């Protein structure tokens, strides 16, 4: 049922002409005593017009969100590493989440980051922007991985201070301003550095360790205790990187946020990510896209649809050719000659 309320229209944009209620088609139809079928047709047309307008607005919002999401996707190949990544947002409308990832080729090696901001949806987007923007600058500038993490910490602190000032309520008259801070905001961060020879080093702040798929095995890249997430506590004075072995040609690294491990089915059971990755390691072809497809298929089947938390997955595969073995000619000893002139050319001139 459509209700009509008499009175002037809403004020907003200036109108060139005054509103005349007699110009309303439904009002004229009611005054002329049209049959109910005609009124129903007019009402249906108005409802369809309103519905189409809302649908266009929803599509526009999703297009903007999808564009922002795809800007987070790294290129498909970075300095000999094939990359595949995906982000699933718990917000079904905005499709923007609190997960972040990036991989860059720098003069210091390939550097990658993956992180998880507290909360999900568009509300976490400013923190994602602050951390990613800092990483994209620091990854090129800082010679060591600890310097990159320090830059991320400073960017996070600056972001929290700006948010605290924006969200601080105005003090009452005669009352002093309180020291309000956004104390509950934090972000987990994992930094990786992959050198040209395949050596992998990492710094971890409260994030799940990646999994290494080598041969037919899938195991955590490291088991060291991580530092606290960025935000609540300062980083320690010393930040030694964690050596994680070597990424050999054909090996795969699977980076993920905790939304993948914490996803539950209808009975409350957690998603068995290690078992799914072990199965993906035995499949052929074992490309980043195939591994990603295997995980997403199992994850969708496990949760029965959309996830309840944001999920990010990034898969890296070493496509660099294996180092060439030294030639046998370079290793063979110099042949011994019996020509005395070859042994001492100054004593035996030609």
Automatic annotation (TrEMBL):
Domain PPM-type phosphatase: start-end pairs: 78-318
Keywords, alphabetical: Hydrolase
Region feature Disordered, mapped onto this chain: 1-21, 301-350
Annotated EC: 3.1.3.16
Keyword Hydrolase: yes
Gene Ontology terms, MF aspect: protein serine/threonine phosphatase activity
Gene3D superfamilies on file: PPM-type phosphatase domain (3.60.40.10)
One matching Pfam family: SpoIIE
Entry protein name: PP2C family protein-serine/threonine phosphatase
